[in-house]
Amino acid sequence: MKKLLFILFLFQLSVVIAQGQWQKISCGLYNNTFVNAIAKHNASIFAACWAFPGRVYRSDNFGVHWDTTSSSIQYAQSLYSFNSKLFVGGENPADVFYSTNNGVDWIRTNFNKLVNCFTNNGAILFAGCNSYGVWYSTNSGINWNVTSLSSYKISSLAVNNYIVYASSDSVNMFNKGGIFFSTNNGTSWNSIFGYSTNSLTATGNFIFAGCGNNRGVFYTSNNGQNWNQTSLNNETIMSLCSDSALICAGTSNGKIFISTDYGQNWTQTFIVGNKNIGTRILSLMKDGNYIYAGVEDLGIYLSSNNGLSWTTYLNENDFVESIYKYDNLYYTGISCGAYISSNNGSTFFQTLSTNTTISDFSGASNNIYCSSRDPDSGYVFVSTNYGFNWQKMSTINYPLASILIDNPYQYIGCMYSGGLWRSTNFGLNWSQTSLGSYYIYGIEKIANKIIAGTTGHGIMISTNNGYNWYQSSLNNITIWSLSTNGTILFAGTTQGVYYSTNLGENWIQSSLNTNNIYAIHASGPYVLIGNIYGTGFSQDFGNTWIDCSQNISGKYVRTVFISNDYVYAGTYGEGLWRRPLSELVGIQNISTEIPSGFSLSQNYPNPFNPVTKIKFELPSGFPLGAYGNDNVVLKVFDITGREVVTLVNEQLAPGTYSVDWNASGFSSGVYLYKLSARNFSETKRMVLIK
């Protein structure tokens, strides 16, 4: 018993010991980031970001994924492409940098000012500064000179008909903001518009001004002599972009409006579904049919149809609450919406933007349902086209934790003693079942039974579609998660993993018998779990377990999933991860006996073609619980000593293990395999004959 507890204790103490095994599914950007500017340079899209981590990012695939550039500016504010150079202005340091190789390297100009915006009039480059007005350069940013407009905070610049326009959003007793224009490249300026202005854009003979204080969008068609307010007249406009007759406007409260007739009529096509109601649309950029929107705290949203619809991709630090698969599509729910993947989970894009956390999914008859929660209530959404569009069906006065669709019945599990509710009309109306005062974290269907996991009361069972409930043998315990592989039920509890082989009536505690197991998913013989320490995996129906956390060790895993060739882990504030299932099933713990020492056995069969088994033993006291960051490494080399494959590189508990090597991709010959663990090392020979 002491040995078993020690093994489980080691599971809690896992650390990052093997990089690259779990791969993050992310667009590369972060939440809590202000995307202040977006620009196209050559064939790439660039984004200037503040907050964490503030810098310049580049996308080479239309915004699906972003990589950070080498810019030493930590808080990037502005971007501009000019004369084969990409310019970035920012703070820390407050200066202008430029790159001539698509952001690989950056050169500092020593301008030493925070630049909010750029534009050019022919060969002259202009910079709008935070407190020092408008400056210009005649040699592509090498040297800078101040114009006569030298004491304003400049929010935006634009050029139309060779006239330079500068806007200011300053509002104080000395400066009320507005718009200025210069017909002589900044030698002199005239004030032509008196409202605080955040953004300018020019198209055709029109100049559009996005104003503060809920004044909306104004325009001029006579070089600024007269200004007219458009029908978009009651919003604070933070950003604008244009292309011919199409004008796009982003507001201070997370809305995007589109006009296709030079601002005469406007249609709202987007609103941020986020808990932060004041989320601003900080930047907009149009490129062909694509429009990119920089959203405060949420990264970048994009439209591929001129702004009619919008989506975004998973960020690096999203709070992932749920994962689900229906047909060949994958779904994941985060703290502000639902995402979908049609490429086996390689990328996820948003199809439901909401200000609630998507807690669970369930599908039937080609319809997908999801449950959600905010602090005081819950919502049920339904999609009739596999999750590409959603409709809110109903509101419940409790936050929702789980959902199960078993037509003609639908079930939802509530938090805060809201109990379990049932619908018989596809989610339009709900009634509370007799399981009405419980906290329901999980709902499963097996045979003719509905299984409910509760807090403090264990597993409850109904055999008549939720009308009546009775207690299983697993009682007086909190059930955090439920899963079934069709014949066996698994429960993640406050005391590890339990399983039932008789439809939930009786339960057996597995060898993983400590710690809260917040997430569990079973598929065939495989079981994957998640908790605050990372992930664990069993390939024998939960009889034996290995720690498979590796580089997500220590992350709070809220949801897990097994499907096709991958396992998935959704974390709390660390995004969504996946790794190949083959990395886990190749290692088998074949004995619960604890060996007395290290050993490496001769492979069997030997010679072999093309698969062979290698067995090794790890003794008591191993691995890192008492000795530090020890991991087991099993590698194969050719006869010259060149490494050809790594079979094992991770933390393993004491025990006897077997791993397969499939050498179908290698030529006949003599190979060496070497086991290294702590201060133990042994090498043996094997022969591949084809």
Structure characterization notes:
With 690 residues, the chain is mainly β. The protein folds into three domains: 27-303, Methylamine Dehydrogenase, Chain H, CATH 2.130.10.10; 320-471, YVTN repeat-like/Quinoprotein amine dehydrogenase (Methylamine Dehydrogenase, Chain H, 7 Propeller), CATH 2.130.10.10; 588-688, Immunoglobulin-like. The protein is built from three helices and 63 strands. The strands form 16 sheets. The chain has a four-stranded antiparallel β-sheet with strand order 1-55-54-53. It has a four-stranded antiparallel β-sheet with strand order 2-3-4-5, with no helix packed on it. Strands 6-7-8-9 form a four-stranded antiparallel β-sheet, with no helix packed on it. Strand 18 and strand 19 (206-211) form a beta hairpin. The two termini are 47 Å apart. Mean pLDDT is 91; it is low at 1-20 and 623-629.
Defining traits:
single chain; 690 residues; mainly beta; Methylamine Dehydrogenase, Chain H; Immunoglobulin-like; 3 domains; four-stranded antiparallel sheet; 3 helices; disordered N terminus
